[in-house]
Amino acid sequence: MSKLENKLNLPLKAVSLKQVTIQDDFWSSREKNVIETVVPYQWKALNDEIPGAEPSHTIENFRLAAGEAEGEYYGMVFQDSDLGKWLETVGFVLSGRRDPELESIADNVIDLLGRAQQPDGYLNTYYIVKEPNARWTNLRDNHELYCAGHLMEASVAYYEATGKRKFLNIMSRYADYIATVFGDEPGKKRGYDGHPEVELALVKLYQATGERKYLDLSKFFIDERGQKPHFFDQEANERDESEVPARGKKKREYDYFQAHLPVREQKTAEGHAVRAVYLYSAMADLAVDYNDDSLLQACKQLWNDVVRRKMYVTGGIGSSEYEERFTVPFDLPNNRAYTETCAAIGLMFWAQRMLQIEKDREYADVMELALYNGVLSGISLDGKSYFYVNPLEVWPATANFRHDMSTVKVTRQPWFGCACCPPNIARLIASLGQYIYSKNDSDRELYVHLYIGSKLELEIDGHRVQVTQQANYPWNGQVSLELTLEQSADFAVAVRVPGWCRNAAITVNGQETDISQQEKGYVKIQRTWQNGDRIELVMDMPVEIVHPHPNLRENAGKVALQRGPVVYCLEEEDNGPNLQDIVLPSDAEFDVHFEKGLFGGVSVLTGSGLRSEVQAGDEHKLYTTQAFDKVAAPLKAIPYFAWSNRTPGEMTVWIRNHN
Amino acid sequence: MSKLENKLNLPLKAVSLKQVTIQDDFWSSREKNVIETVVPYQWKALNDEIPGAEPSHTIENFRLAAGEAEGEYYGMVFQDSDLGKWLETVGFVLSGRRDPELESIADNVIDLLGRAQQPDGYLNTYYIVKEPNARWTNLRDNHELYCAGHLMEASVAYYEATGKRKFLNIMSRYADYIATVFGDEPGKKRGYDGHPEVELALVKLYQATGERKYLDLSKFFIDERGQKPHFFDQEANERDESEVPARGKKKREYDYFQAHLPVREQKTAEGHAVRAVYLYSAMADLAVDYNDDSLLQACKQLWNDVVRRKMYVTGGIGSSEYEERFTVPFDLPNNRAYTETCAAIGLMFWAQRMLQIEKDREYADVMELALYNGVLSGISLDGKSYFYVNPLEVWPATANFRHDMSTVKVTRQPWFGCACCPPNIARLIASLGQYIYSKNDSDRELYVHLYIGSKLELEIDGHRVQVTQQANYPWNGQVSLELTLEQSADFAVAVRVPGWCRNAAITVNGQETDISQQEKGYVKIQRTWQNGDRIELVMDMPVEIVHPHPNLRENAGKVALQRGPVVYCLEEEDNGPNLQDIVLPSDAEFDVHFEKGLFGGVSVLTGSGLRSEVQAGDEHKLYTTQAFDKVAAPLKAIPYFAWSNRTPGEMTVWIRNHN
């Protein structure tokens, strides 16, 4: 195994959730929404208590597995993961506040998990209830390790929040058992799951327990992936499946599962986008823990492929509904974008890990871009409806009619119709605190990645430090960081100047700091800090006209509007129909103003464009040799994440422009 | 039934194929190709004599039906129609020349048809061989009348070409039998076929035989269509099918079959595009024959819906691969166009019929547009490969990868993989002579619709007239019509000034004619014609920049290039990759020159556009706030119909433009 080139350049560690309290105009209400609405609602859903909703059966499946109920297994083969995501969210919620009632519900369901666990440690309700003799016979399709992974993540979050070890012990026992089944020793399976997830979860389990064997098991799965002879073929042969795929589905290619090549040989992002970024996240984790430069280089190449060739301007990824997958470079259709909310969330997971290794703002830029756009668009303002698919352009008449656009929804769908994205977005928001700061103990550095009002408590070099961040982000580029120290201390605060920002200034206690000496977008302020020291960051935040690379054929001749990290869109409600007819003059300018009453308060952009003057009789000209005259049209753009919260109608991110 | 408003405005009659001989630089080689290559090839295909091709089994099915072979039926349920289209093409071919060998092959297969015909007149090999007791049990799906219709059309063409009645008699007997099964009398089925075709065929059978009952049967089918209770439900109930659709298919909505409403109440073109235009063609026929204004008004409304809202600039129709159907107004995606070749052919059928009724050049314009673009693009220059689907834009990497573009082919496919479009395009080309001229006996008028070098023999008011048309169309706008008469005669020659032509001049024997007195685009020259009189038409044929209606969202900010009736496109072979990056300046001009060696000789357009200057390092900017510089780029456009006859690559009809 090759080593990281520069061993001294030790990676950062994200500051843990418990140390951060969010107090932010933009995010606190969203966090509250998750805590007060989403978590209780999802608990009811897991218990089949939502009138009119399709039953989830998740809790009932665990009762069946524990022998405490009679009946049949019901639900998807990966139904257990819904409980995992919910319990993980509960863990995140409890890390910031006491909630004895919620904790008691969680403890009870954890007890149930314990009773459902088999004597050997196994814990998967589908196989326990439905196919007790068929464990580990279809890793490719049946999400057995995927479910284990989500429960492991949950157990770590719950342990870190509450200090209670029961759930962690249950999942450690399960992991111990898994390690007896998989491995390169004789008699063990040299396999891995069709849906990566357990790999990153095992890293968390290692971090929580200190048990290196979990890390080794994760590395085993990563190392095996894509090796020949192909494990999915071997297990299919053992199932006597030969050429016929499971459950009548078209046989998938290996790349759907990111199993077409050993991971270190993968240079391009292929297949199912969520699976891909979950896998890459684990690869980044292991690159650090094993000091494995070959894994890091693979991550960097994959990163470049995603962000330079396969990422929407919103941070959305995965442009094909079929197989929810990456396609070919620069194939980013706007009105047929798939851009699953979970994929944008997974991109944040991966970006966050890369950021700890490389301390390069590009990772934070992408993480922030996905957060404020491709992720946040997935949930309605009231937290009660969700997009799986986040198109960048919608014509309702066409989207509602065309069969090849059937996954594009014009309005968000209620929770109970869904299974994966809503709990994923809930756990993301509930854990947002851990994306804001990192620290590097050996170099005594504190990194500030995101501008979210918050209070951070940490120790640097033995000194207790409290950082109070105040911001009115993403609407305004002024951020202050106030330090509270028991005694003065030497350390560095590295402040990110975002990639979107062309002009920034930083002062410390009112004294301007030279920001020209950035390291990959971070201004490192090294000094002996005193109690009450105050860093002020002022970022110019004009409206930016964003041009696509010429290879982005779908956007040729169009521009997007962005301000700070927020990408804007036009909606029919503000601009009338036929948004594609609107063209921006080359000298287009936009005013910014904050509309308090709109979408809970957002900055909107107003300006002027041109649109065609259609006169009586013009309906007789589908094609004409006479160009239509243009007339001025006032324009109003709203944040993309807020679209489809009013009357359903057209929407577009990309706007025509004379360039 | 309402009557036509103006009974005096009697419709034109298309001049029959036998009276026209094409002698034209552009078309004669294509006609020859059909006669010498396509017809023999297709005969081999019908007889399963193409090595490596999937068997057609069509002739063998007729042998089975005749009790002259042993085995199983094989092929689609509508396999008989392939023989129908082939025999119709043979009829068209034989109407222009003697070919004893071909005629003998046809006579033999007609004899076989006669032996396969059942004692009661029934003739459908699928049901005779495979389900002898299930005739007329699934009109919705099983194409029984559709197959009958194609064989009827063939019998008429063969009779008109050869004067031999045998085939006509076979099909008349079949039609007589069908009339005993269907009708509004008690005990008869009040049904109609899922795929319209027999309706227009019965009109032809009536015209050939003079038997009005065939016209009445056609009218019965047209009148019944879409009535409630719904026939397709009734027959499904009789099949005990209830909700389960035939052959495991998703239940189709009535509009797929144009059976959602009685035809006179249909205002918008819905469903399967080929079915629609076949239906509308029969409606236009019957509007004339029954003097039925309600049918005509329905046709006109449907026509407006198609050509003002649902037609591509190439004359292609049907923008959705799913159900090969019309969708919603202005939904005309270029790279996902379906635009089946057969649908453009069917649009010509319909346009030709409307033209006879209304004498309005718009119908001829659309007929010509479809012919030179959406139809002709369906066949390769060598006549050996075919497009079903005629996209207006192709990015091969994307089209070859994306599942939702699987029907978009980057290159034409060989004959034997196909079933419907190749024989349809063959019969269209073989019968092109009947689209050029019409006459109106009562008003002593000869209409000239298309400019195709040809010799026409006809009688007007008892006078034998020969018209020799010379043209170098579509490359050149100069046309001459020379009249040969035995003696002078009074009649009118109505000359079409195409909609694409802004400036034309007409002389008679060198004397300029006032062309301002056009009637719906036709300049009617009324005079006492002498032998040797010569009409010269000169149409300016500059390169036109075609603008889309602002509602055509997919084309916003783009233009198409057209010269005469020919729509142009850019191909990667001439212009390099990334065609969407190319932008035309607002003052773009193009030179025209004829390239003799290219595609058998075509006029190409050359000009200059702009494209982005991508420099080293620019691959790092998927999105940037800096617009890319533009550099001049020479452009070369070729006729759209000729695309994909060289190296496979990108193609686009619509080009960005600053408008």
Structural account:
Two copies of one chain form a homodimer. With 659 residues, chain A is an alpha+beta fold. Chain A folds into four domains: 56-233, no CATH class; 254-434, no CATH class; 436-539, Immunoglobulin-like; 543-657, no CATH class. In chain A, the strands form four sheets. In chain A, strands 4, 16, 17, 18, 19, 20, 21, 23, 24 and 25 form a ten-stranded mixed beta sheet that branches. A seven-stranded antiparallel beta sheet of chain A has the order 2-8-9-10-15-12-13, with no helix packed on it. A five-stranded mixed beta sheet of chain A has the order 1-6-7-11-14, with no helix packed on it. In chain A, strand 9 and strand 10 (478-485) form a beta hairpin. In chain A, helix 3 (80-96) packs parallel to helix 7 and helix 9 (198-209) runs antiparallel to helix 10. The longest helix of chain A has 20 residues, at 27-46. At the A-B interface, helix 13, helix 16, strand 16 and strand 22 of A face helix 13, helix 16, strand 17 and strand 23 of B. Strand 16 of chain A pairs antiparallel with strand 23 of chain B.
Ordered list of secondary-structure elements with their pairings:
Two copies of one chain form a homodimer.
Chain A (H helix, E strand, L loop, with lengths): L12 E2 L5 E3 L4 H20 L11 H8 L14 H17 L3 H17 L8 H6 L8 H4 L1 H19 L3 H16 L16 H12 L2 H13 L6 H8 L34 H17 L3 H17 L31 H18 L2 H15 L9 E2 L6 E2 L1 H6 L11 E2 L6 H10 L6 E4 L4 E4 L5 E7 L2 E9 L6 E8 L3 E8 L7 E5 L2 E3 L8 E8 L4 E6 L3 E6 L9 E6 L2 E6 H4 L7 E2 L5 E6 L6 E11 L10 E2 L5 E10 L11 E2 L2 E3 L2
Parallel strand pairs in A: 7-11, 19-25
Antiparallel strand pairs in A: 1-6, 2-8, 3-5, 4-24, 6-7, 8-9, 9-10, 10-15, 11-14, 12-13, 12-15, 16-17, 17-18, 17-25, 18-23, 18-24, 20-21, 21-23
